[in-house]
Amino acid sequence: MEQPSRIRRDLAYIQGLLEGNQTLKDKPEGNVFTRLVHLLDEMAEEHEQMQIRLSELEEYVEAVDEDLNELEVLMYEDEEEWEDEDIGFWKVACPDCQGSVLVDEEFFEKESDVDVLCPHCDTVLTVSDEGDVAEKGKRARTMEEESMDLKGH
Q: What is the pLDDT of residues 128-139, one digit of tens each?
């Protein structure tokens, strides 16, 4: 069985003093003290319940933290495996916005120069199979995109 807290022991001591003091029983001050002790007893109960909930939450957070650490280890192991493999994409930088653009190597099987669209700034880039990048210009906007801009602004 769990040992009573210091607050509980002190409250029990004060309750004993109040019950043993015959002069306060019939006075209004005695009723006030008795009511205060009952309130403190309720507060002590709430405090104990909060301590229990806090310890349960701490255990839960520790378990989640351990699971997250295991997941991070697994993810970084997978990432290291992918770094060593040739995944079939070329990573080139857009000369207009400096954003990264991935180009599938399969495109170069049919042609030596491939036009790709920068996903960041909509610039059309010509990428050669030697890795050279040339800016071709901005992509023409569709009527749907134009109408979306008008509605949004």
A: 766 555 555 554
The parent domain of residue 61 ranges over 6-76
Kindly report the pTM of this predicted structure: 0.43
Rounded to whole angstroms, how far apart are CA atoms 111 and 130?
Answer: 12
Question: Alpha-carbon distance 44 to 26, whole Å?
Answer: 27
Task: Look at residues 22, 49, 76 and tell me which one is the last residue of a structural domain.
Answer: 76
Determine the Cα–Cα distance for residues 100 and 58; give it in Å rounded to an integer.
42
Number of domains in the chain: 2
CB neighbour list of residue 136: distance below 8 Å, 6 or more residues apart: 115, 123, 124, 125, 126
Give Cα 59 to chain centroid, integer Å: 18
> Based on the domain organization, do 12 and 47 belong to the same domain?
yes
